[in-house]
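HUMAN:
Could you generate one sequence with tokenized structure?
ASSISTANT:
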Amino acid sequence: MRRSLVLTVILLLLCSSICFARVVKTYFRNGKVSSVQVFNKNGTIKGPYKVYWPNGRLRSMTIYKNGQLSIVHHWTKNGVKIN
């Protein structure tokens, strides 16, 4: 029983560092999220990179595909999309 538990824990630790994406969040002093980035298992940025205004609204969203910049969107502090 103990051996299977140890093996399970080892497999989970290995898989968490190899199989899954890593999400990095930064925060404003007020506790709200400032930005969110996602990296794949190789450390390459993937998916949307989101930056927020201090009021919590989305400021910009940059979408990456295969580690390359694909699309960029921007919003005003009031939530109006600029492009």
In short: The beta strands are 22-27, 33-39, 45-52, 58-65, 68-74. The chain is about 20% helix and 45% strand. Residues 2-18 form the longest helix (17 residues). The CA atoms of residues 19 and 41 lie 6 Å apart.
